[in-house]
């Protein structure tokens, strides 16, 4: 079977990897830009012994998705940099709220006593969940904010859940679907009548064993077993996360997969014999297309033949994110940890700050990543913010929140347009309808990637695997 993959980001490269394993050649990946990796981008400052990450920087080795990624890491023989659960970056996570830096509880003891920004002990939120019955039908959806407020109270929704959603997808928890992004918690409520009840039953009654993920023909990946044994909280790769897409491209090249850069698909035409792709210099017939393109980029390729499918894809909104990487000489942080998030209720232009140099050794430098924009990009930055304007805002809040008064020695400003899909209420059903359309019309087209199956690195890799496995 002659197959084409649209997009050379992590999801597209993963689709190529799994297509190669399942079908072999011929296989071509088409990427519109001059590089692979999508939003994953590492800038290494060899002369200064630190790196900047524009996109994601760590991966969590959790459950089937985490095991699946580690299986790929194992085959690619990549040098990993694990962070154990005992590491300060795994234990210390903070909020900036009510004018102060607040440490989030990292042990059961933290549920008792009143810790800012909360005005009552957190165990009372758990009691609220235990005393609140199931109030939503299993076929309904609601926002994560509404779900959290209903189960745990408004304070938890404002100061715990909302900033977490900012960190996951730069989105507004009042719009993001609980059935899509927190499906496990939603299902526990539906099955057991409460989130806490569901967690306890799942642990003690259902005998769920994450040590045996059911995706692998033989034993679980060795790296996954190692991660469980050594209690990894997260990990990265020596040299930065962009090493992963580069290694995948090298692997694909070595196995005669054709990766074409700066060659965007312009139209897709479906017929009984397959698909005809209109490219920069040629029309290419293939038997099947796997698209890892963002929904808004795929939509116009389908519009001439399938306008209603185009409209459904365009229902998935995206947000712009601003990333500012900053480096200072010496250790400038008063409190170590993974970083901090800012609840939207604070009405500040930043989403959070990641303490990169706490997560990984940066040779005596303090390296921070300031995240801004997302759902609130237009509100804070308008249509054409200057890099100086953005950098000044980032430095202002680093000074105010972290009390770093020095000027940074090195910085980078990146505006990432329409980089993260927003899983608004009804998203799970929306994706079902899109994939049902493909099935009903028997289109030789598979869709994988962040728009359909989740925003994390594990999510997009597993999305590619499952969509390739589902090809007839």
UniProtKB/TrEMBL annotation:
Protein name: Protoporphyrinogen oxidase
Reaction(s) catalysed (UniProt annotation): protoporphyrinogen IX + 3 O2 = protoporphyrin IX + 3 H2O2
Domain of life (superkingdom): Eukaryota
Lineage, opening ranks: Eukaryota, Metazoa, Ecdysozoa, Arthropoda, Hexapoda
Cofactor info, note text: Binds 1 FAD per subunit.
Family membership: Belongs to the protoporphyrinogen/coproporphyrinogen oxidase family. Protoporphyrinogen oxidase subfamily.
A GO BP annotation: protoporphyrinogen IX biosynthetic process
NCBIfam families xref list: proto_IX_ox
GO terms of molecular function: oxygen-dependent protoporphyrinogen oxidase activity
Pathway where it operates: Porphyrin-containing compound metabolism; protoporphyrin-IX biosynthesis; protoporphyrin-IX from protoporphyrinogen-IX: step 1/1
Record localization: Mitochondrion inner membrane
Gene name of the record: Dper\GL13869
Pfam families named among the record's database cross-references: Amino_oxidase (PF01593)
Cofactor(s) recorded in Swiss-Prot or TrEMBL: FAD
Domain Amine oxidase: 10-471
EC number(s) given by UniProt: 1.3.3.4
């Amino acid at each position: 079977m002659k197959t084409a993959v649209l997009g050379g980001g992590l999801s597209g490269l993963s689709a190529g990897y799994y297509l190669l394993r399942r079908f072999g050649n011929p296989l071509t990946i088409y990427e519109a830009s001059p590089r692979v990796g999508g939003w994953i981008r590492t800038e290494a400052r060899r002369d200064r012994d630190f790196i900047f990450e524009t996109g994601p920087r760590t991966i969590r080795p959790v459950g089937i998705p985490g095991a699946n990624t580690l299986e790929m890491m194992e085959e690619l023989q990549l040098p990993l940099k694990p962070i154990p659960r005992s590491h300060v970056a795994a234990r210390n996570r903070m909020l900036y709220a009510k004018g102060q830096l607040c440490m989030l509880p990292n042990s059961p003891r933290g549920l008792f006593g009143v810790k800012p920004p909360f005005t009552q002990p957190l165990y009372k939120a758990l009691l609220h969940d235990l005393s609140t019955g199931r109030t939503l039908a299993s076929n309904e959806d609601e926002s994560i904010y509404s779900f959290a407020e209903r189960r745990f109270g408004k304070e938890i929704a404002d100061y715990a859940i909302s900033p977490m959603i900012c960190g996951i997808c730069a989105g507004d928890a009042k719009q993001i679907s609980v059935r899509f992004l927190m499906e496990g918690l939603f299902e526990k409520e539906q099955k057991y009548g409460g989130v806490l009840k569901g967690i306890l039953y799942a642990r003690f009654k259902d005998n769920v064993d994450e040590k045996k993920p059911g995706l692998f023909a033989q034993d679980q990946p060795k790296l996954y077993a190692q991660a469980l044994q050594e209690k990894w909280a997260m990990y990265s790769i020596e040299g930065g996360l962009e090493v992963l897409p580069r290694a995948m491209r090298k692997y694909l090249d070595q196995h005669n997969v054709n990766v074409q850069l700066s060659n965007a698909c312009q139209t897709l035409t479906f017929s009984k014999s397959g698909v005809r792709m209109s490219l920069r210099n040629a029309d290419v017939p293939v038997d099947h297309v796997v698209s890892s393109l963002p929904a808004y980029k795929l939509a116009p390729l389908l519009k001439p033949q399938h306008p209603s499918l185009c409209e459904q894809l365009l229902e998935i909104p995206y947000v712009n994110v601003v990333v500012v990487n900053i480096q200072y000489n010496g250790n400038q942080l008063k409190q170590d940890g993974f970083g901090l998030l800012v609840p939207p209720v604070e009405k500040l232009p930043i989403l959070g700050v990641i303490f990169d140099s706490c997560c990984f050794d940066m040779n005596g430098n303090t390296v921070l990543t300031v995240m801004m924009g997302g759902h609130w990009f237009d509100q804070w930055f308008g249509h054409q913010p200057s890099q100086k304007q953005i950098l000044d805002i980032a430095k202002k809040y680093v000074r105010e929140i972290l009390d770093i008064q020095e000027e940074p020695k090195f910085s980078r400003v990146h505006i990432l347009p329409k980089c993260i899909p927003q899983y608004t209420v009804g998203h799970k059903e929306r994706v079902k309808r899109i994939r049902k359309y493909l099935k009903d019309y028997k289109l030789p087209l598979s869709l994988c990637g962040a728009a359909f199956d989740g925003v994390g690195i594990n999510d997009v890799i597993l999305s590619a695997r499952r969509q390739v496995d589902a090809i007839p």
